[in-house]
Amino acid sequence: MDKSSKNLARKRKRHKNLIPLLCLIVCVVVFTISLFIEDLEAEVEGSGHDSLYTASKSQVSGSPDSMRSPQVGETPSRPRKQSTSTKAVPEHRQSESTFDSQIKAPFHVPYPFRVYVYDDVVSTLNADLQGRDSCYTPYTAAEMVIPDLVSRSSIYTTDGELADYYIVPVQCECYMTTKIQKGVDFSRAAAALNKAFQTTLDIVQSRYPYWTRTEGRDHIFIFPSERGAQILSDYNMQRIKKSIFLTGTISRSNTRFNPWKDIVIPPARGPWTSAKEALPALLHAADPMAPSRTTMLHFRGILPGHHDLNPWGIRETLAKNLRREEQVVFEEPTEKCGRNCTRREMLQARFCLCPTGGVEGWSLRIFDAVMLGCVPVLVADDVELPYEAGIDYSRFSVKILERKAAETAEEIRSIGNSAHSRKEDALRLTKQHFVWHEEWVENDAFDMLLKELLRRVRFMRNSPYRFWSMPVPTG
After folding, report:
1. Where are the transmembrane segments (predicted)?
2. Looking at domain 281-434, does it have CATH number 3.40.50.10680?
3. What are the residue boundaries of the structural domains of the chain, listed by start?
């Protein structure tokens, strides 16, 4: 090989050795530029959201802390501490929020605590659920409605360091309903749910610092059905056992319900409810308290085991004793008389029977009865009802012991007209507690929930009630 060929070979070898170095340099430059662009976008996006939210609130009702004046008899709260963190949220937060609350008007609520919503940790569990009609039934809608109401209210904070409560907006019931409607059997749907729920908990507990500070005691999970958290595996339940559960009407014997920490909420029927679940327009137009109620006692519902001659439980006892009674409707749903027909019948009844009996969704009848001015008759011994700490159910309902179910007709006939009228009057005043609106309304279902949280806030990490500016009376 001549000298020129050797030189050419050496040059090619040097150039070949430079290729990995050049590739490394290019990668470093591209990576640096991408980080710069990502930080710039995050800064613009964050400032855009905060400025929109703040400006909207100030236009409506001022800043959250400046809007509220101390109430009579209330301990003045200390000023809120400022966050020492440089970022309100982790760097990995997704740019798209789970809740489309920015397009709705924010509103003020007169309570001093703050709530943080994890709006970026449930994409796996909530995938393809947003906007589904099946998710906006009274039985499941609370999973969407409550986080949305909170995120548009003055108690909402984007800084977890300032929060008293943390909502983990998983949609367990909606997830199960959607899977089953697609033909997935219950056990497989439950297994998929628990796997996704575990992933959600992993994110909350590993990426964020808030859980470990209280072992989840200030975290809120929503389980709006009568089974509450029973759908969760033992492993998942063990991880969140100290958290606050918002549940539907539930049995006190449910081992995953703790009345000391958990809150029972009414079904979230409202403007978002699907048309087939909403009360018919003619019922809204009618006077629920009209005197033309010709039926003494009404029930139209499922009788488990009736058709296969293997009946059981309270409903069978009631059927045997009520079907031949005068002024009593005790029937099963038919093709000619379904949901809306049943509600028309309830509108003509003085008392509406609301028995348990192993039928999922039985408690929805209670709130239909209240809305339609029909005095609820509960046949359920150990049931925990919504907001019992603030609502006296004895004023507008009747409760019959399960062992006395056979005597229901006699019990109802013994209630005189004046006593029934008093219960009707109480219904007028009470039904607002079970109605959800798209913003805060005093004494509505959302307000009752906030009052329950207010009672508990003194035990939370950032509670303003741990300090006070006025001297404590000594005499």
Report:
1. 18-37
2. no
3. 92-270+452-465, 281-434
